[in-house]
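2024-03-11 09:14:02 INFO worker-7 job=invfold-0412 stage=load source=structure_tokens
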């Protein structure tokens, strides 16, 4: 998926206001924006375990989660390159945007 803006998404289940990568799913997203979306976990993007999320030149901003991961909530594998995650809000804890997997992987 590329050259796309996802705006004002609303979840219908428990995760992923803008984008949900469900178990065993995979997404590669290049040159895009996820903004103004709302979800329980992963206001902008939620990636469940096991799944794969690759973001390149993507901006994730202005999203809200009532639970964890205002911008991005990921439990699966991921790779981020030139990604901006800012101005997102979440309901629990002080960290802004990403909950890493139990294996402790974190974005670079």
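2024-03-11 09:14:09 INFO worker-7 stage=emit residues=108
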């Amino acid at each position: 998926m590329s050259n796309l803006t996802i705006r004002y998404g609303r979840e219908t289940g428990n995760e992923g206001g803008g984008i949900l990568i469900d178990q065993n799913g995979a997404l590669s997203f290049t040159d895009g924006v996820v903004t103004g979306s709302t979800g329980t976990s992963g206001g902008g993007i939620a990636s469940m375990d096991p799944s794969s999320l690759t973001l390149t030149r993507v901006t994730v901003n202005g999203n809200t989660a009532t639970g964890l991961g205002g911008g991005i909530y990921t439990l699966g594998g991921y790779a981020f390159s030139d990604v901006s995650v800012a101005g997102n809000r979440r309901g629990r804890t002080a960290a802004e945007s990403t909950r890493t997997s139990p294996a402790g992987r974190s974005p670079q």
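2024-03-11 09:14:09 INFO worker-7 stage=report msg="The chain has one domain: 2-88."
2024-03-11 09:14:10 INFO worker-7 job finished
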